[in-house]
Amino acid sequence: MRRKDLPTTPSPMSIMRMLGELSCRAFKKIYCRRNYFNRDAQLIQMSKLFDKLSRVDEALSKISQHISNLPSEIVSTERALGRVLAEDIISPSDFPPYDRVAFDGYAVRSESTFGASSDNPIVLRVIGSSSPGEEREFEIRGMEAVEVATGAPLPKGADSVVPLEYSRRLGEHVEILKQVAPGANVDRAGSDIRKGETILRKGTFLGPFEILAIASLNITQVRVVRKPRVCIIASGDELVELGSELKRGKIVNSNLFGIRAIIGELAETRYLGIAKDEPSSIKGLIEACDDCDIIVTIAGSSVGSKDYLYDVVKSMGGEILVRGLSIMPGKPTMLAVLGGRLLVGIPGYPVSAMVAASEILLPIIERLLGIRGVEVKTRVRAKLSQRVPSSPGVRHYVRVKLTKEGDSYIATPVRIGGAGIISSLVRSDGFLIVPEEVEGYERGDEVDVIVYRRWLDLEEGFQKS
């Protein structure tokens, strides 16, 4: 046998070259079948792994650097509930605007009552009566009184009011059974709010009590921060709209309604529809968000073969700020800046979507509005009915059901994992948040539960289905 016919051992370089060619052929064979090699194929990247997971506070800090003030607008006081003030409110007048009677009784000169008691009543002549809204004017002199109702203007000459329970009417006279000091039972003009006083600061969220104060000062309009405009895009070939026929393999685009419910009080939402699992479809809907402050995409932010959001945003010149959070559920959340607008990629699994919307999207909207103060959440101290494990470095949102035993609350985990189990949200009452640095809790540990229900059915108890 000639030397050239003998088998030769391939060099390491040759082996690497052959493996590379085989990999390339396999890649093309697989992806060409799925029509990846077209104009959209340039959007596909081989690297689709989460580079670095961010904590929630880190993610919010990064995107806050790209938040700018929203413009303001004027709304009527009757439509200002739930809005955020864009400027301080200065009182245009005193409140109350006049010396006001604080109790039903008799307006008097306090000096006329000195020494009065039930054993030694002082008799005063009643010269009339006054109620709120009446324009009667009286002037009280010594040893006179005017019968008054709560809220009526204090008659001229009077400096105090004797409550009804310390008086006894005798025809045109009244017996005073207890002496009163000057100013007793009278609300002086401006004693509540002074003219020129700042009553509400810029950034104040207007709730029922704030609206009450504004209306009391006869302020008919207020300047508020315009609500953030949020465009919502869903993606997924499996999605159909609510009310559609559910064929095999199809599910309702229900995340849309949950997200709207979470942010609807603070933001205006515009739904653009369902994008197909194609880069061009996702890109087309994103390009339609030309008048919004925040673009919200539902699904497509993970690292699967049909998760195109990362590549689409990069191809459109966007800056990826966060790709992946160290939370469970909700890990595939993405934050970016695209064309001067904020983009929030919400995971597609329902529980992940609700956690991301509550913990990331809602705080972003609150920062855009410039709301003053720190949000106060309802917390309940409860004992765990069983052990809750967790992974180090990951913040876990454990769904728990609350019950009561005596004076104590008991928290029973409904689900620790399961980002797609919708029933776990309606069968639980709140989240037990396990911080990144805590490696789970043991049975009997006392923990704080963040309650997301307004009413708790504590008598029903927990029944595992």
TrEMBL record:
Keywords, sorted A to Z: Molybdenum cofactor biosynthesis, Transferase
Keyword Transferase: yes
GO cellular component: cytoplasm
One Pfam family from the record: MoCF_biosynth
InterPro entries xref list: MoaB/Mog-like_dom_sf, MoaB/Mog_dom, MoeA-like, MoeA_C_domain_IV, MoeA_C_domain_IV_sf, MoeA_linker/N, MoeA_linker/N_sf
Pathway(s) where this gene product acts: Cofactor biosynthesis; molybdopterin biosynthesis
Domain MoaB/Mog intervals: 231-367
GO biological process: Mo-molybdopterin cofactor biosynthetic process
GO molecular function ontology, one term from the record: molybdopterin molybdotransferase activity
Family that this chain belongs to: Belongs to the MoeA family.
Protein name according to UniProt: Molybdopterin molybdenumtransferase MoeA
Upper lineage: Archaea, Thermoproteota, Candidatus Korarchaeia, Candidatus Korarchaeales, Candidatus Korarchaeaceae
